[in-house]
Write a structure and sequence with these properties.
With 580 residues, this protein is an alpha/beta fold. Helices cover 35% and strands 13% of the residues.
């Protein structure tokens, strides 16, 4: 892509607030001076907001205050004026009912912070799962020059001589306790080993996936995704990103220049190659909607179907993000995709260069971490999009984290009406279930939970685990953590809470899964399905006020990104008028 930089110098957006001698200019400028800023900082240089998702209740982002100082240093060096701005931070591991419910709220808040304040450019300082997509969505809607800096993953966890992957180990160990393979005391001993440094998940969970998506989209500098949080090179990345955003403002290099359809295609293929989280599907669909790029579930299936998963990381493989960084990180993966004609090489990045120029000289330093194609974890990775009478609008499955013997399966449904029903019955020794059954969880989609929580990777019943069974087919309208694994069908659309076919599945019904054929079928006569649907009634516990009502009334389905229906195509709204 050819990008023509804007002329410099020119009058910037921030000068509507700070440039001049009117009463309004003095009002805006004078109040900021109470922090000790000299007058010449308001001379028309780029004002850069560091949108910081730091918070002590967002543990993954707990070190971003320190990182912000390095970003500031880079902005000062390049002649910009940095101002740190705290923004809404939705933590996956503390928010209830789920951080996903607040992704759209965070995106709206970021959009209005950028639109309503004297900001010429923004550094999106992110980390935890929802902070990356929410800030990208807000920046995309304002189309103000922006660059992503992620906080980086934690160091490897170690417990009794073995790697411990954040999240992944939690699911494994909790199942081992139910199976009688691990004691509660051992579980507590392992707890500290799971999270031994600052940073996000050290597996290829959603945080690491979305950091990779930002880089593959071209919205972060090359190499950003994998640098560990405590590595000095993470601070270097922050500082040079601070320098770069100043130049981006001068060039007027905006998100709309970078977030093209070709860039989204690169990210989708990259997700397949890294064994990325299924959560990337809803986040990229929502982001594409913000910039008016036509990306659908069918694109996810088409583009990812032939992409081999070559990154040998948990939950699909055996290593962690620390080894991924040492092996060369995401640039190596993107280079491999380019060599296989699976990369739009001329896609523009925030560096001002094409993505191919950024990665063509990358070196793989460990071929057991970033595998040769012939040794791929899964020859056909990506995200499998399933359709059928159980999921007319689609459902997703992550092949690299699933069991090969279950990819074609027919089994008897064991139905849980909601997550409380599941929790009440799953440990019951009298539950009529075995490993051939299909576990079905309803009412956990965007409207149903509400917010679409990460409960789709339902733990197996203890009596099945004790027999050495580690996986079963599970189907829901929920999400699952990117750190999780298993033959888990997710995001089933339409969801049960709006009367999708999932709502009328009954225990004892037969369900067919055929991943190769992309088929998910409820083996019940069509007439019976229609009868059940005609008798279905919605639950009456919809929220009556507040943000929960706004969310319930306006959230769209997972198949289009679960964004709000009134936010698509909102880019370009004018700067609010000054009222002083």
């Amino acid at each position: 892509m050819t990008f023509k930089p804007a002329e410099w110098p020119r009058r910037l957006r921030s000068q509507e607030w700070y440039g001049g001698t009117s009463r309004d200019n003095i009002y805006h400028r004078g109040w900021l001076k109470n922090q000790g800023y000299p007058h010449d900082l308001f001379d028309g240089r780029p004002v850069i907001a560091i949108l910081n998702t730091w918070g002590e209740l967002t543990p993954c982002n707990g070190h971003l205050r320190e990182l912000a100082e390095k970003v500031k240093a880079g902005i000062w060096e390049a002649g910009g004026f940095p101002l740190e701005v705290p923004v809404f931070s939705a933590s996956e591991n503390t928010f209830r009912p789920t951080a996903m419910m607040y992704r759209n709220l965070a995106a709206m808040a970021v959009e209005e912070v950028m639109r309503a304040q004297p900001i010429d450019g923004a550094v999106l300082l992110v980390g935890c799962d929802k902070t990356t997509p929410s800030l990208l969505m807000g920046a995309a809607s304002t189309d103000i020059p922006s660059i992503v800096v992620t906080g980086g993953p934690m160091l490897n966890g170690w417990f009794r001589g073995e790697r411990v992957g954040s999240g992944t180990a939690l699911w494994q160990m909790s199942e081992d306790i139910k199976a009688g393979k691990m004691t509660q005391e051992e579980f507590l001993e392992a707890e500290q080993a799971m999270n031994r440094s600052s940073g996000t998940c050290n597996t290829m969970g959603t945080a690491s996936t979305m950091a990779s998506m930002a880089e593959a989209l071209g919205m972060a500098l090359s190499g950003n995704a994998a640098i560990p949080a405590v590595d000095a090179r993470r601070r270097v990345m922050a500082q040079i990103s601070g320098r770069r955003i100043v130049e981006m403002v001068k060039q007027d290099l905006k998100p709309s220049d970078v977030l093209t359809k070709q860039a989204f295609e690169n990210a989708i293929r990259c997700n397949g190659a890294i064994g990325g989280s299924t959560n990337a599907v809803v986040h990229l669909l929502a982001l594409a909607g913000r910039v008016g790029v036509d990306i659908t579930l069918d694109d996810w299936d088409r583009l990812g179907r032939d992409v081999p998963t070559i990154v040998n990381l948990m939950p699909s493989g055996k290593y962690l993000m620390e080894e991924f960084f040492y092996a060369g990180g995401l640039p190596v993966v993107l280079k491999r995709l380019g060599e296989a004609s699976m990369l739009n090489k001329d896609s523009l990045t925030v560096s001002g260069e094409t993505i191919w120029d950024e990665v063509k000289d990358a070196t793989n330093w460990n071929e057991d971490v970033i595998l040769p194609v012939e040794k791929a974890l899964t020859a056909s990775g990506g995200i499998a999009v399933l359709r059928g009478n159980l999921a007319p609008n689609g459902a997703v499955l992550k092949p690299s984290a699933a069991s090969a013997h279950l990819m074609t399966h027919r089994g008897r449904a064991v139905v849980f009406e909601d997550i409380d029903d599941y929790k009440a019955r799953i440990n019951d020794e009298n539950l009529d279930i075995d490993e051939t059954c299909v576990m079905v969880l309803k009412n956990c989609g965007p409207k149903g939970y509400p917010g679409m929580s990460e409960v789709g990777n339902m733990g197996l019943p203890p009596k099945v685990l004790r027999r050495g069974i580690k996986d079963m087919v599970r189907i829901s309208d929920a999400r699952m953590s990117g750190t999780a694994y298993g033959t888990v069908v997710l995001h089933t659309s339409p969801e049960a809470a709006v009367g999708g076919p999932l709502a009328i599945v009954r225990s004892g019904d037969m369900i067919e899964l055929d991943v190769a054929a992309r088929r998910l079928h409820l083996d019940v006569p069509e007439e019976e399905i229609e009868r059940r649907l005609s008798e279905w009634t919605a639950r009456t516990d919809a929220p009556e006020s507040g943000y929960a009502k706004l969310f319930h009334d306006h959230v769209e389905g997972a198949d289009t990104g679960a964004d709000f229906d009134f936010l698509k195509g909102c880019r370009g709204r004018e700067v609010p008028k000054d009222s002083h």
